[in-house]
Amino acid sequence: MNVEPEDRPRSLKYENVRQEREELLRTQNRIQGLREFVENMRRETKQGENIPHFDPLDGGAEARCLFLFEAAGGKAIRDAGKGSGFVSRNNDDASAEMFFRLNEAVGLDRIRTASWNIVPWALRETGKNRPPRSDEIEEGKVWLGKLISKLPDLKVVVLCGNKSQKATGFLYKEYPHLCVLHAPHPSPQSMLQEGKKEYLKASIKKAARILDAGQSYEGIRAVNTTGEGAEI
Asked: Is the pTM of this model over 0.85?
């Protein structure tokens, strides 16, 4: 059997890599609190495995930067063995690959980050993903607040895409100590628009600078975004 490297774009399409990641989910100390958080959410929402786990290659409870996307994509759901079961930059889709490559270009170590969605579960109609509704985003904000309580070192939240940016006011009001940045979603339809790839890269770079400098920012840096209904 060919063994594929774990940390490269789209590596979670390989079964051996998924199995290794699942083993880390069970054994990596820094991810255990977030693993329990997801398991509890699965029970309370009755969404079950429609909610993917945090990637144990990321920072887990030690994360200082949270990237918040829109809704769980099909490649993140362990559906009939095809998806990974993780919100991950290693998922087998174009959005995840773009996010991986831009973080790599900036040099923001993933161990300092976590990735999640404003609506933590997949949204599907007639076999296709759909954008989150307002009521689903409101429910997602509740779970976002619970998540932040599990991330004691969190400094920066990067809201990627229009739907995740609906959490801006909530974060600004409830967590004024956090720096909230806006960025485009790394979906193909967003990245094809002029300037969007550069905006996303600049937002990742700004997050890295804040973490490196230990700076405290007040206010919000907003970036005009598109790409509704995209997932990672």
From this structure: yes
pLDDT of 217 > 60? The answer is no
Say how far apart CA 9 and CA 96 lie, in whole Å.
7
Between the CA of residue 80 and those of 42, 74, 93, 124, what are the distances in Å?
18, 11, 17, 16
Distances (CA, A) of 203 to 15, 54, 186: 33, 22, 12
Rounded Cα distance between 7 and 27, Å, is 18
Query: How long a stretch of residues is the chain?
Result: 232
| Encoded tokens for 128 | 């296709």
Please state which CATH number belongs to domain 11-221. Answer: 3.40.470.10
- Whether 84 and 21 have beta carbons less than 8 Å apart is answered as yes
Q: How far apart are CA 93 and CA 9, in angstroms?
A: 9
Cα–Cα dist 98/78, whole Å: 21
Characterize 116-125 residue by residue with b for buried, 16 or more Cβ atoms within 10 angstroms of its Cβ, and e for exposed: bbbbbbbbee
Axis-axis angle for helices 94-106, 196-213 (nearest 10): 50
Locate the domains of the chain by residue range.
11-221
Round to whole Å and give the CA distance between 209 and 226.
25
Q: Convert the pLDDT of each residue in 153-172 to its tens digit.
A: 999 999 999 999 999 999 99
